[in-house]
Design goal:
By secondary structure, the protein is of the alpha/beta class. Helix content is 42%, strand content 14%. Helix 2 runs antiparallel to helix 11. The longest helix has 24 residues. The site of pyridoxal-5'-phosphate has 13 residues, from helix 4. Pyridoxal-5'-phosphate binds next to helix 4.
Length: 364
C-alpha cells in the first residue's frame, strides 16, 4: 500500500529498550534488570501521588475533566502564569506535535541543534518540513543566529538543558538571543530537565514566567516524566501567550489526559520537597560518574540533568559496551544514532549506579 510520501523519510522513534524485552531476549529475571536509559526518576514519584491515585481508580467510567481545572490551577500557581497561557499534553511530546502542526507545513524550515531530542525531527517531517541543523555538539547561539538569518525558519528548537548531551545554555545568553528573533518565528524552549538545572546552577535556569512575559513568540515546555517521576502517566505542558495556546487547542484531541494522570500530576506539584530531595541525590550520585569517567579516560560532558553522557575515544566502541551491558541486564542509551561514540546513562539509585560501575569496569 502507498502512504503519504512524507512518511518515506521518517525513521520511527526508538525508545530505550524496555525491561520486558531484556527479560525475554536474555533470560534475565526482571528484578535483575536495571534500566538507566530513559531518564526517569529512579526514586519514582511522591508517595502522596500513589495514595491519591489509588483512591480514584474506582472512577474510570466517566471521561476525564477536559477543562483540566485542577491541574491548570496548580500549574498556574506554580509558575505564576494565566490559565489561558497553558496547554497540557500527553507528555510534552504532544505539545511539540501541536507546535509543529500549528506553525509548519511542507517546505517550512525548522532550526535545531546538531544533536538534540529526536522527536523534533520526526514531527517536523510529518508535515513535510525541512530540518536545518547547527554543526556544533553543544548549543552555539551564534551559529543558531546565523542560520536563522540565512534560512528564516518557522520554528527554532532550543533544548536546554539538552538531551542527549546534558549541557545547558546561560540564561542571559538565551535572552539576548531571543531579543534578536522576529515575533513571527516560534521559539520552543524545551525545559524537560529544567528542575535539575535550577538546582545546580541558577545562571542557566530560565522560568516560563520570564519567557512568556517578555516574548510573545516563545513556547516553554515542561514535563512530569523526568524529575516528577511520572513517565508512565504521560503528561507534560506548554506555556506561551494565549494566542499560541488558542491555536494549539484547535489541534488537541479531546480528553487527551486521563483522569488518573490529571490527579497524579496535580498532587505531584504539591510535593515539591520530594522532588528536591530526588534532585539533590541525583547530583550526589552524578559525582561518582564523573570520577568513574576520569579513572577510565572517558569524557563526561558536564550535565545539568539527571543523566550523564560518556564520550569514548576512537579506539573504544561505546556501542559494544552498551551491547555487553545489555546482555547482562544493564540498559543504557547508545548514542550511535546521533553520530556520537558515546553512551547516555541515567543517574540511578546508589545501588543501581554501583551495579553500572561494577559491570562497566570489567568491560573498559
Ligand atoms: C523526555 C523529554 C521530553 C518529553 O517527554 P514526555 O514524556 O513526552 O513529556 C521532551 N523533551 C526532552 C528533551 C526530553 O528529554
Amino acid at each position: 500500500m502507498k502512504f503519504n510520501a512524507v512518511l518515506d523519510d521518517i525513521v520511527s522513534y526508538e525508545a530505550g529498550k524496555p525491561i520486558e524485552l531484556v527479560v525475554r531476549d536474555f533470560g534475565i529475571e526482571s528484578k535483575d534488570v536495571v534500566k538507566l536509559a530513559s531518564n526517569e526518576n529512579p526514586y519514582g514519584c511522591s508517595p502522596k501521588v500513589q495514595e491519591a491515585v489509588s483512591k480514584i481508580v474506582a472512577n474510570m467510567a466517566l471521561y476525564p475533566d477536559d477543562s483540566m481545572m485542577n491541574l491548570k490551577a496548580a500549574l498556574s500557581k506554580k509558575f505564576d502564569v494565566a490559565e489561558n497561557e497553558l496547554v497540557i499534553g500527553a507528555g510534552s511530546d504532544q505539545v511539540i506535535e501541536f507546535a509543529i502542526h500549528a506553525k509548519a507545513s511542507k517546505g517550512s524550515k525548522i532550526l535545531m541543534n546538531s544533536i538534540t531530542f529526536a522527536m523534533y525531527e520526526i514531527y517536523a517531517k510529518q508535515v513535510g518540513a525541512e530540518i536545518v541543523r547547527t554543526s556544533s555538539r553543544e548549543h552555539d547561539l551564534e551559529e543558531f543566529y546565523e542560520l536563522y538569518l540565512e534560512h528564516r525558519p518557522e520554528i527554532i528548537f532550543i533544548c536546554t538543558p539538552n538531551n542527549p548531551t546534558g549541557d545547558a545554555i546561560d540564561a542571559e545568553a538565551l535572552k539576548s538571543f531571543l531579543d534578536k528573533i522576529d515575533s513571527e518565528t516560534l521559539v520552543v524552549v524545551d525545559g524537560a530537565y529544567m528542575e535539575y538545572t535550577a538546582f545546580k546552577d541558577a545562571s542557566k535556569s530560565v522560568t516560563p514566567k520570564e519567557l512568556v512575559s517578555n516574548y510573545d513568540n516563545v513556547l516553554y515546555l515542561g514535563t512530569f516524566s523526568k524529575a516528577y517521576g511520572l513517565g508512565g502517566m504521560r503528561v507534560g505542558y506548554g506555556i506561551a501567550r494565549p494566542d499560541i495556546i488558542k491555536a494549539f487547542y484547535k489541534l488537541r484531541p479531546p480528553f487527551n489526559i486521563t483522569t488518573l494522570t490529571l490527579e497524579a500530576a496535580t498532587v505531584a506539584l504539591d510535593d515539591e520537597a520530594f522532588v528536591q530531595e530526588c534532585i539533590a541525590k541525583n547530583f550526589d550520585e552524578m559525582g561518582r560518574y564523573n570520577d568513574f569517567a576520569a579513572t577510565h579516560g572517558l569524557e563526561a560532558i558536564e550535565s545539568f540533568t539527571n543523566f550523564v553522557t560518556l564520550v569514548f575515544d576512537e579506539d573504544r566502541s561505546a556501542s559494544s559496551l552498551a551491547q555487553s551491558l545489555l546482555e547482562q541486564g544493564m540498559i543504557v542509551r547508545d548514542l550511535k544514532g546521533y553520530g556520537l561514540n558515546a553512551i547516555r546513562v541515567t543517574i540511578g539509585t546508589p545501588a543501581q549506579n554501583s551495579r553500572f560501575f561494577e559491570l562497566a569496569e570489567v568491560l573498559l
